[in-house]
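FAQ

Q: What does a record look like?
A: Structure on top, sequence underneath. For example:
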């Protein structure tokens, strides 16, 4: 179990949903992770729905049946940040900055820092 209470399977399915550009049905998750049974995926999606990590995004046809599609409610970065202490989050940020090679990424970070500093100073 991870620090925030998600099991390995729950985290695995959340990662699949986060990496998808659109909501997915249980059958589509099975296609991406064939090592998981459809029954397991349905049980985990139901639990994630109860925990408030996913929501029903709509409905689609799978073969001849109408099935629900799911999308994450929480962003992956928000989830990961919740599993880290403040010190670890700061250390990860510093390490990312030290190794970053994209000028655009560093400029975006600098802008975020400046915006946040202005908010704090108000």
């Amino acid at each position: 179990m991870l620090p925030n209470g998600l099991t390995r399977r729950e985290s695995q399915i959340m990662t699949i949903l986060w990496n998808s550009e659109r909501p997915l049905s249980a059958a589509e998750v099975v296609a991406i992770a064939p090592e998981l049974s459809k029954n397991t995926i349905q049980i985990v999606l139901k639990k994630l729905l109860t925990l408030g990590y996913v929501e029903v995004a709509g409905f689609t046809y799978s073969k001849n049946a109408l099935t629900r599609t799911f999308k994450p409610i929480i962003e992956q970065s928000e989830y990961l940040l919740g599993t880290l202490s403040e010190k670890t989050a700061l250390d990860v940020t510093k390490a990312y900055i030290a190794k970053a090679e994209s000028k655009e990424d560093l400029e975006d970070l600098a802008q975020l820092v400046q915006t946040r500093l202005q908010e704090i100073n108000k």
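Q: Is there anything notable about this one?
A: The first strand starts at residue 54 and ends at 62.
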